[in-house]
Design brief:
14 helices, Helicase, Ruva Protein, domain 3, globular, Rossmann fold, 2 domains, alpha/beta
Length: 330
């Protein structure tokens, strides 16, 4: 592992720039997606990535694990996956003395970086086992609790097109993810570079440029970043305005939203803004940082009503209306 040093804002910016450079050696484009994933990891939170298969979600996460020297585990969610397939189970073994005893067999959840692929294909019981580990950082088997080693990040994916045989995550479980990140199709020039990079014999790899310990220290620096009162007040008013019964709610919210964002939405915006400020090389949070992270922090926390669903309203459009109509103040 890389030797740890006292993390300063300069070292923070240097390390994160190196991480983004290493990932860019392997993954073409997706700079904004990488930035949002990195924000979640630096904040010691989890992310939900939504996109059709083949857009490089797994490659991005695996490359990040290599650049950060993290133990990586991929779990493919299927309808027949059981909670014990994720967290592990007790197995009966014969000891050297000839006796029989139970030994805990660790599941794939015992890693630093978990790729929960197509999380909405597993049953609610299996989903809840993963989400409990995300929240508590522990798992419980046969009455015994086992701690998960820090750092611990879950990056879950889901396919927005194929919904047959899926179990969509309830809103309360979606709320556990700091960001919901949309993974879109690459542009034509990016697709050409993908073909050049992936259809030959040699494929690029990422070098380790940071460690899990450094990620934790960098995250602590970001979370301790001071925020001016008028900025936190703006975030609170922004989230409050996402509720249709609020007097400050924009017309789009009143017409298309059934329930607005929870207090976790405000926390996600402020935490993301802190990390984004340091990623940009600043030791102060600005309105621009809040605007940068508002969509991924809120898009999965806005519940559309029947009219919104019927007219295929995109949650990002509601977020833009909130940013447009919420006064910044002094």
């Amino acid at each position: 592992m890389t030797a740890t040093t006292e993390i300063s804002p300069e070292i923070f910016h240097e390390r994160t720039a190196a991480i983004e450079r290493e990932v860019a050696r392997v993954v073409v484009g997706q700079q904004e997606i990488l930035r949002h994933v990195l924000i979640c990891m630096l904040a010691s939170r989890h992310a939900l990535l939504e996109g059709v298969p083949g857009l490089g979600k797994t490659l991005l996460i695996r490359t990040l694990a290599a650049a950060l020297q993290l133990n990586f585990s991929r779990i493919q969610f299927t309808p027949d996956l059981m909670p014990s397939d994720i967290i592990g189970t007790d197995i009966l073994e014969e000891t050297e003395e000839g006796r029989r005893a139970f030994r805990f067999q660790h599941g794939p959840i015992f890693a630093n970086l978990i790729l929960a692929d197509e999380i909405n294909r597993a049953t609610p019981k299996t989903q809840s086992a993963l989400l409990e580990a995300m929240q508590e950082k522990t798992v419980t088997v046969a009455g015994r609790r086992y701690a998960l080693e820090a750092p611990f990040f879950v990056l879950a994916t889901q396919n927005p097109l194929e919904m047959e045989g899926t179990y969509p995550l309830p809103e309360a479980q979606l709320d556990r993810f700091l960001f919901k990140i949309q993974v879109d199709y690459p542009a034509v020039d990016e697709l050409v570079r993908i073909l050049d990079r992936t259809t030959g014999v040699a494929e690029p790899t990422a070098q380790a440029v940071a460690s899990g310990e450094e990620i934790l220290e960098m995250g602590a620096l970001a979370l301790n970043l001071p925020v001016a009162r008028h900025l936190s007040d703006y975030v609170a008013r922004l989230v409050f305005a996402s509720h249709p019964n609020a007097t400050e709610a924009p017309p789009e919210v009143r017409q298309y939203i059934r329930y607005g964002a929870s207090p976790r939405g405000a926390q996600a915006i402020l935490i993301g803004a802190k990390v984004n400020a340091l990623l940009e090389g600043r030791f102060n949070v600005s309105f621009g940082d809040i605007e940068t992270v508002a969509a991924p922090a809120l898009r999965h926390r806005l519940l559309l009503n029947f009219e919104g669903l019927a007219e295929n309203i995109v949650p990002d459009a509601i977020v833009q209306a909130l940013l447009r109509d919420t006064p910044k103040g002094i």
